[in-house]
Design goal:
Radius of gyration: 17 Å
Order of helices and strands: EEEHEHEHEEEEEHEHEHEE
Largest sheet: 7 strands, mixed
Number of helices: 6
Number of strands: 14
Shape: globular
Helix content: 10-25%
Structural class: alpha/beta
Oligomer: single chain
Distance between the termini: 5 Å
């Protein structure tokens, strides 16, 4: 299985508009971050996790030829704002989009023309697939286990796919969900910035969480410009932990 980080930035991306900080003006391409999204190639399936407003740019950059399904962690714009850009991938057929029912309901209100009887020519044809935390499902031959994490007070989803655990926008997780990460060898988890935040882990909290999981490799995502320079921060992390960066591909 191969995972490509389509984007690793927070909701506004990096560089941030109207900012001249060291990260936003960095010449290092690793410090340029589109909104967080990932592409998973299992060998038989092509699956995207989250579909934000940078999705068109991300798919062109990554050379994604087809998509079998999309997984949504939650309904915030930086994770669903690019769903209409699925249109070239669903000519003549629907794209299954797996999400909790409340997320599907929210997306239907935003882009009703992509669903059911409201579908129009040359729009994305989205097939909503409701899922629940703790209940595994399959896309082709690939089993996926959604699990509950908390985005502040908002319940959202993480996903386990084989030995991969994928989490974004998390502030906390209960013991039942944590138990579902047992045996994960590759962990992807959010690390917003260096200060305390009410709805996201900061970098220190992300490192502590990763140490508790004990995966062989941990990649941090959903970083803001206040998370620090890629090169500087990666030199400070414990072994086998690092900031991911846009376009990074890893074998799992």
């Amino acid at each position: 299985m191969k995972l490509t980080f389509l984007g690793t930035g927070t909701s506004i991306g990096v560089p941030e508009m109207c900012c001249n900080c060291a990260v936003c003006t960095s010449a290092d391409e690793h410090d340029r971050r589109l909104r967080t999204s990932a592409w998973i190639e299992t060998g038989t399936e092509s699956i995207v996790i989250d579909c934000g407003p940078d999705f068109r740019q991300q798919t062109l950059r990554a050379g994604i030829g087809h998509i079998d399904a999309v997984l949504l962690t939650h309904e915030h714009y930086d994770h669903v704002g690019g769903l209409d850009d699925l249109r070239p991938y669903c000519t003549g057929h629907d794209i299954p989009v797996y999400a909790e029912q409340y997320v599907i309901d929210d997306v239907k209100q935003r882009i009703p023309y992509c669903f059911g009887d409201c579908k129009k020519p040359r729009t994305a044809n989205i097939l909503p697939m409701p899922i629940e935390p703790g209940v595994p499902f399959k896309i082709g031959s690939t089993e996926i286990l959604p699990f509950r994490v908390m985005h502040g007070t908002i319940p959202i989803l993480g996903f386990r796919i084989g030995s991969l655990g994928y989490i974004t926008d998390m502030k906390s997780m209960d013991d039942d969900s944590f138990a579902l990460l047992k045996g994960v060898r590759t962990l992807v988890v959010n690390a917003l910035h260096t200060k305390e935040h009410p709805t996201h882990q900061n970098v220190r909290q992300a490192v502590l969480f990763a140490q508790r999981v004990g995966a062989d490799e941990t990649y941090f995502v959903h970083m803001s410009h206040r998370a620090g320079l890629h090169e500087v921060m990666n030199a400070k992390f414990p072994p086998h932990m690092q900031f991911a960066y846009d376009t990074l591909s890893i074998d799992i």
